[in-house]
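Obj.: predict assembly geometry.
Materials: sequence records (below).
Method: joint structure prediction, all chains together.
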Amino acid sequence: MKWFIVVMLLLSGCVSPRVLERQGIITAAGFDKKGKMYEGGSVMLSFQTTGSSMSEVIEATNKTSKGLRQDLEAQTSHDLGSGQIRAVVYGKELAEEDGIFGLTDTLQRDANIGSLVYLAIAEPSAKQVIKSKKHEDTPDIGTYLYRLIEKNLRSESLLAATLHEFIHSYYDVGKDPVLPCLSLRDGKPIIEKVALFRGDKFVGTVRLDESFYIKMLASEYNTGLKNITVPRDDVAPLLIKKKGKKVNIVFNEIRTKRKIKLISQKPAPHFRVTVKLQTEILEMSEKIKPIMQANIHVLERAIEKQMKKEIEQLLSKLKAYNTDPIGFGQIYDHSVRRLQLTDKQWYKLYNNAKIDVDVSVSILRTGTID
Amino acid sequence: MMKTPNERLSINAYLVFFLVHTAQIGLGIVGVQRVIFVEARQDAWIAVLLSGLWIHLVVFVICQTLKLSEHDNIFSLHTFVYGRVFGWIANAAVVVYFLMAYTSILLGYVEMALTWMYPDFPLWGGALILVILTVYALYGGGFRLVAGVSFLTFFMAIWVVVVVFQPLKYAEWIHLLPIFEATPKQMMNGVLKTSYTMLGFEVLYIIYPFVKEKERVHRYAQIGVMLTTFLVAAVTVIAIAFFSPKQLDVTIWASLSMFTIVKFSFIERFEYIVIPLWLLVILPNLLMFMWAMTRGGKALFRIKQKYGLFLFACLSFAVAIIFEKRATINEFIDQVGWYGFWLSFVYPFFLYVFVRMKTWAKGSTK
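Observations (raw structure tokens):
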């Protein structure tokens, strides 16, 4: 039986070997619409025997994304491997007109590609973002985009950008996906806005400070920074000067707990949203009296009032786009027995849904000074 | 009637726990979530628990049956109850079941490994490797090796359970609500569909004579079944929370897809660890069912298990290479589940009644 083991060991080398120097590792891909075809570009990272690496963008136009892949293969001497793909960028036009589910579906179907790939929308086109030469100290644009999105997910107002989360929300009835929206500033890709979807179609964007609220309502939010502008009258007892219009407050280390409850179904769905937020004050645009136990509530109530207003504005904006990234429909579907909600039904209900917002803020600390 | 094996061939009772548990856990658990979910929706995990309860009852009945007479395995029980000719047919049915079960695991695993890791490797090649492995192991080791393998692989694979908790980061527990929405019919279908995953405890009928302390077999078998039910229910709950309903409807290997989320700094794609590791999980299945077949061969044709091994190995390989497409493999696995359901979930009750009647009739004629 010894020879048997030897043969087994020898045979294990038979499945196609992959030599690192011959591999072209795709780290990012971008898709745009061009007439009826897709225009795609990939960032290919290859390693030289000397130990250095180089990245190059290759482009092609085809009807399907795997067809693109074939065209790309024709343009390089390396074997393209998509196992290390980090970010996939879709052009705004493509996402708006065709939807991107078909393209994300192939990613999911391909066992080579993990579920933690980041997706993003690019304005004006994916091509420009992919071809950007400005990627700080990272070896290639794919890694840059990956780190950019990852950092903003972890600590800032960005939410849900992985392939898994996109497909999850896409399939979930009563919840729409969101993705980061990349734009170029001086030729460098940055995140400025968040793209909203209905199904898999791009419908509009919100600013990052608005997406803060989406993140807060859709999931538990921890850490991060938020700037809020409150009317002067609301915080008047605290102020030393009596002039000026608005007061800016920046707070930090935010922890929130949210609860969304369906109160009644008829005539229209009625939700109550309660948000509990704990935070510390980082900066104020004006000099104020020392904050004490007695007057801290003035500040808290002022922030609550402003936040409530902003959340309500955001919700009506989302309704206007007819998109539900927070997942009210999901809550509706799972709270009502014997109900098979469809997306179509939900959008109808969503338009008339009544949503009460209740925010309670507690300021834990005020930094190193009172 | 077969002789009870001698002391040298028999095993300790606690090994029954490993044998039953590892024979149950196999390929099913990788993709069971979708199958039950399609039937019972968010109540799928309840269907798993119900199915588990049912199995506890079946295991109890099996042990009772084996205690009734001096016939302590299914093949000799069949000849005892049905006589020579009908008994032979019943035994052949059991052997065919084991053959189908063996082949379905073989195909299912190879297909999974090919889809995820080696798309350019032929199906027959993968099947051949596994068949040769089975023959190699059983030719040298026999039953005691089966027991040893299930003991070892249990510990080599159980740690994966810890990693399953990492996907919980993305879980949305609201998917589980409302509870008890499934109609009794949906629930029943859910229980039925769970059966393929939970099959394997019927090996008790065959390993029973090989256990030293017969009175403790029942206890260890029950513990084994309990662990299986718990694991299957846990992965079902996690999958329901992790995937959105429509997504789960189309995800073939839900457990594996959940592993694509798992990421460590030293290994980015954890599923590439899990798939080869799963060979260890299905190995006891393969060995157990092949060994059961050879026992059946002995009862049917009075051939030595050594020769039966080669015969059945060739046979299952031949059956395996007929299949090419996933659709047909799925259909085949469904068939096995259906067959197994009747044989293992329902038939033991009837067998118990028959044996009872037979022993009573025999007793009264004396």
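Conclusions so far: Chain A has a mean pLDDT of 81.
To do: check interface contacts against the pulldown list.
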